[in-house]
Amino acid sequence: MVNVLFVCLGNICRSPMAEAVLRHKIDERELSHKILVDSAGTGDWHIGKEPHEGTRRILDQNKISYANMAARLVSSEDFQKFDYIVCMDKSNGENVRKVPGGEEAKLLFFMDLLPEEELREVPDPYFTGNFEQVYDLINAGCDVLLEMVIREKL
């Protein structure tokens, strides 16, 4: 089993959107028995809460499930469990490094999957309100990530 973890700040907007989108793509390719996806945050404000209403709305529009998703914090155990730890921005990458064991973790920054994009971080729609822009970036990046996982690990 290959394990992928997406990380953002509160784990209610970007990382759960990426989790849901990648799971959907994995299901479409009938690979859910080979790839596990999760998400976590580096801040504790929303622990246990479902994804943000803007994330839920855009996922509903695209017929993508977010059932049973709840915000949680990145933990030391994640560094042993996950093959890919994908951070939505540099600040959250720095925060992951502060978690015990995180200083040695191999991190991937989401926008590195999309080198042709001018943006180098996934904007936080909690502050910008632009869930459509984030969905477009995440949808494109998850295509690249899935192909990378297949090529490298399956």
From TrEMBL:
It comes from Paenibacillus odorifer. The keyword Lyase does not apply. It is an enzyme of class 3 (hydrolase). Residues 2-148 form the Phosphotyrosine protein phosphatase I domain. Transmembrane segments: none annotated. CDD domains: LMWPTP. The lineage of its organism: Bacteria, Bacillati, Bacillota, Bacilli, Bacillales. Its EC number is 3.1.3.48. Pfam families: LMWPc. Belongs to the low molecular weight phosphotyrosine protein phosphatase family. The keyword Hydrolase applies. It comes from the Bacteria. It catalyses: O-phospho-L-tyrosyl-[protein] + H2O = L-tyrosyl-[protein] + phosphate. Keywords: Hydrolase, Protein phosphatase. This is protein-tyrosine-phosphatase.
